[in-house]
DNA sequence: TCATTGCTGATTGTCGACAATCGGCTAGAG
DNA sequence: CTCTAGCCGATTGTCGACAATCAGCAATGA
């Protein structure tokens, strides 16, 4: 008996990434929501979307479940689905949750091969820099996600990482909104990540955690916080 | 224009809780998985389940998405769905994530009306005690969930609470397994929560957080943890 | 004997149609 | 004029059927 275990074919090291129909629809809708082509409070009617995308309503339904899980839309059973509005309180809520999860991933240090991590972070940062120069917000947000994903990944904490990634979309939405509203330079984002990379390179865990805290929570009123760090 | 906002009818204070078909199926399957009627590695075939429950495959599909999100089953696209096996490492992973989320909810203290919280916790604990006396594992786990939900709820951190609740099922599975394996008395569970309630009653936040840490992490080797507390 | 190619049963992916439910509108009673 | 009950269009919930895909097996050729 050598190989009767239910091996999982093609899961992570996917050469070919096959996107299912619901996933493709989900991506399209997510992109529209994040780019405000579907502003908050917009009603999503299954039949309309099905017709537009040329798929069945079941497929749309499936995609919308995913968006609901990401917090991008709200589904009121038997009534309607609607694009979620994020209040300033929600922004704080998301950022805090995100910080908590990311910070908790550092409790075991930065893993064995810090050099490799630094190299990967560096690469992500350079791509981010390129995106900033090209004024490509989509790419910038994507690089931001990848950068933080690398940090969260070293812990090996699968649940923490999974839960963290649930907030990806909402975090991306916030990032775009913040940059738009305050009319920030995209290059600022690069700068804000350089300090994180520096802390990792120096192997200074305490500084890294402090910087991550700043990264996520600066700009929000801190009423009596005292969590570790 | 007085009331053209999309009010959300019947959302939280639901007098009548209508369980949709997928939700009902999800509950049934969840119950079977948690009670080991569907052991790890069991294949879930949509057609079979559809026939058994007397619903369509789409409904089963919907339910299985939910179980996947809870981490109870794994869905390999175009291949099969299978009940997840939890390794000891997974157990530690879940407990740590759970601790992190719950602990982070205490960063603002215990809210204004601690008396009300204490009362609610007390009630949950009494029900838990009754469940223990009746040797009713289902009820015990349910009370455990409610107890901790009360704690997490006072923070007002919606995302943290939502992410926390994602782990409910897996946590329940661990709890059952732990009690079965070590042949613990159900009354021990009650005892383990009494200390949490006491800390809340005394308003001793530091002690509460320390106890919560112990609650979730005792029994796992702590290799150099240093997170806040 | 061994590797490769084409079938085949089992299972999931997708679809279009029908049923149930909702809020808003309208008509009738008081 | 106001209130209530019932109808109606719009939308979601559910279903059964068909299409696509997969792993395993059989047939073929070297």
Architecture overview:
By secondary structure, chain A is mainly alpha-helical. Helix content of chain A is 62%, strand content 4%. Chain A has helices at residues 21-34, 46-53, 57-69, 88-104, 114-133, 137-153, 158-166, 168-182, 186-202, 205-217, and strands at 43-44, 73-76, 80-83. Chain A has a three-stranded antiparallel sheet. Chain A is globular and about 55 Å long. The interface between A and B is large, with 46 and 44 residues. Chain A binds a DNA duplex (30 and 30 nucleotides) through residues 9, 20-22, 45-47, 55-59, 61, 77-81.
Mean pLDDT value of chain A:
89
SSE topology string of chain A: HEHHEEHHHHHHH
What value does the Rg of chain A take, in angstroms?
19 Å
Helix content of chain A: 55-70%
Number of distinct helices of chain A: 10
Strand content of chain A: under 5%
């Amino acid at each position: 008996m050598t190989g009767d275990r239910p091996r999982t074919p093609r899961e992570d090291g996917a050469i070919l990434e096959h996107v299912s129909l619901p996933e493709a629809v989900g991506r399209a809708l997510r992109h529209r929501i994040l780019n405000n082509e579907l502003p908050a409070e917009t009603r999503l009617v299954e039949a309309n979307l099905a017709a537009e995308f040329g798929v069945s309503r079941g497929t749309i339904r499936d995609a919308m479940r995913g968006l609901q899980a990401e917090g991008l839309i709200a589904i009121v059973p038997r009534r309607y689905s609607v694009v979620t509005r994020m209040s300033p309180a929600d922004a704080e809520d998301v950022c805090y949750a995100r910080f908590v999860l990311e910070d908790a991933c550092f409790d075991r240090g930065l893993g064995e091969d810090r050099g490799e991590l630094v190299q990967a972070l560096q690469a992500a940062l350079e791509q981010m820099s390129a995106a900033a120069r090209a004024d490509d917000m989509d790419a910038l947000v994507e690089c931001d996600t990848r950068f933080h994903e690398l940090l969260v990944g070293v812990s090996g904490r699968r649940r923490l990482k999974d839960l963290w990634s649930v907030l990806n979309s909402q975090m991306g939405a916030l990032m775009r909104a913040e940059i738009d509203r305050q009319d920030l330079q995209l290059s600022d984002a690069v700068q804000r990540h350089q300090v994180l990379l520096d802390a990792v390179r120096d192997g200074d865990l305490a500084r890294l955690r402090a910087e991550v805290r700043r990264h996520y929570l600066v700009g929000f009123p801190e009423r009596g916080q005292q969590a570790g760090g």
